[in-house]
Design brief:
Elements: E1 2-6, E2 12-16, H1 21-33, H2 47-58, E3 62-64, H3 69-81, E4 86-90, H4 101-109, E5 113-116, E6 125-128, E7 135-140, H5 145-154, E8 162-167, H6 173-185, E9 190-194, E10 197-200, H7 216-228, E11 234-240, H8 251-256, E12 260-264, E13 273-279, E14 287-290, H9 298-307, E15 312-315, H10 327-337, E16 343-344, E17 350-352, E18 364-365, H11 371-377, E19 387-390, H12 402-408, E20 412-416
Parallel strand pairs: 2-11, 3-4, 7-8, 14-15, 18-19
Antiparallel strand pairs: 1-19, 1-20, 4-6, 5-6, 8-10, 9-10, 11-13, 12-13, 15-17, 16-17
Helix pairs in contact: 1-2, 1-3, 1-6, 2-3, 3-5, 4-5, 5-6, 7-9, 9-11
Length: 417
């Protein structure tokens, strides 16, 4: 299935964003470890969160998390420290080629019983839950922060807590800090005790009412849309928080360089509010940015900057190779269809110096089973009327109502066989 997308000439709309997937998934695991009765409120309705909800509710022997990378990492640690018997944890074919070894190794060093059912270092896993003693453990800091977050959330239920040492450079630090803040919200005692060390005390989580703010990652696509629109367009986004702990909230600052102004509604501190986005005049000749802490924004900014004819050099993207697809190669391939020759180097930087090629007359953007490919490329229809997106249903992984929201904003979306 494909969608053909045509953008309106002008946009003036209000969008209720989905709840934060990152916070939802963390809150669910911690809530389960706290033996909580009252579920967190405003949970995300995306696929990644739904698979965790079902796994925690039904507790089947075989848990299929489908394409949920976060779910795979978080459920691995959760099952390892929960004395609830033996489970097989598996996922899609692509998931079975995404590494899990660093997390399994760290858990095993603390006494976890985990076996690989197929290839060493990759799902599916056979996990026998037990209470772990805990202690001192070391992990590389330049791997997926989801490994680190999974370990941290399991720490309070270990008999002696955990001291986690991170070696080398630490990437996606905002996601680690988001985990620590969510843990503290549920009563955990956890803190950075050094530049690379996190101490988790052996103190049980407490049950607590919890409300989840809406998703800044989802907001980034509306920022992208506004940056590509005429100056009179505006969008209002409900449920965002000023001073949010979500790493992707940096989008508001980055997009200010690309012509989008952010205005927060008047509200009490920490309460989700309505954010208004407007176009303003700005000229930036080139942008250089290190996405090491916000890798999920990379696709959005590659597409946006190229369409605005702003050369770029984006760094800190090596983890894009092991996402739902190889996002670096996928971006290069699909941007070429639109006439942009994006290059990468040995450091996995993405670079565009303004070099163009002839665009395809009727481009079809492939999504590679990757939700963020569909989400980031759909706004390109503003510059390429009738742009087609292949397998558009992949957006359910993080933003299930995306196409409905685009229609609400005036986009014409037609289904093709």
């Amino acid at each position: 299935m494909r969608y053909s997308i045509t953008a309106p000439n002008h946009i003036d709309t209000t969008i209720l964003l989905p709840a934060s997937k990152s916070i939802s998934n963390r809150a669910l695991i911690i809530h389960a470890l706290a033996n909580g009765n009252e579920m967190p409120q405003n949970l995300s309705d995306c696929d990644d969160t739904e698979v965790i909800v079902r796994a925690l509710k039904d507790n089947p022997y075989k848990i299929d998390i489908k394409a949920g990378g976060t779910a795979m990492r978080f459920m691995t640690a959760y099952l390892a420290v929960t004395p609830s018997g033996e489970h097989e944890l598996t996922g899609t074919e692509r998931m079975q080629h995404r590494p899990i070894g660093p997390l399994v190794d760290a858990l095993r060093r603390l006494g976890a019983k985990i076996e690989y059912k197929k290839a060493e270092g990759y799902p599916p896993l056979l996990i026998e839950g037990r209470q772990l003693d805990g202690g001192v453990v070391e992990m590389e800091g330049n791997i997926s922060s989801q490994y680190i977050s999974a370990m941290l959330m399991a720490g309070p239920v270990m008999r002696h807590g955990m001291e986690l040492h991170l070696t080398g450079d630490i990437i996606s630090r905002p996601y680690i800090d988001l985990t620590l803040c969510t843990m503290r919200d549920f009563g955990a005692e956890v803190e950075w005790t050094g530049p690379n060390t996190i101490q988790v005390q052996p103190r049980s989580y407490r049950q607590t009412p919890y409300f989840i703010e809406n998703d800044w990652s989802a907001a980034s696509y509306w920022y992208e849309i506004l940056s590509l629109c005429d100056d009179d367009s505006s969008v209002r986004l409900d449920g965002l928080t000023d001073g949010s702990r979500q790493g992707d909230s940096v989008a508001r600052y980055l997009f200010s360089m690309l012509g989008v102004k952010t205005t927060f509604g008047v509200t009490e501190k920490g309460v989700p509010t309505t954010v208004k986005l407007n176009r303003h005049h700005t000229v930036i000749p080139r942008i250089v940015f290190d996405f090491v802490n916000q890798p999920d924004l990379a696709q959005t900014f590659v597409v946006t900057c190229a369409l605005l004819n702003i050369p770029f050099h984006f760094k800190g993207l090596h983890t894009l190779r092991i996402k739902e697809t190889d996002r670096i190669e996928a971006l290069k391939t699909e941007m070429r269809k639109l006439g942009f020759l994006v290059e990468s180097n040995e450091s996995n930087d993405l670079i565009w110096d303004g070099e163009r090629c002839d665009p395809m007359p009727h481009p079809v953007i492939m999504t590679y089973e990757d939700h963020r490919m569909a989400l980031a490329f759909a706004p390109a229809a503003i510059k390429f009327p009738g742009l087609r997106i292949d397998t558009p249903t992949v957006v359910t992984k993080s933003y299930p109502r995306y196409w409905e929201d685009l229609k609400k904003a005036g986009f014409k979306i037609e289904e093709e066989p």
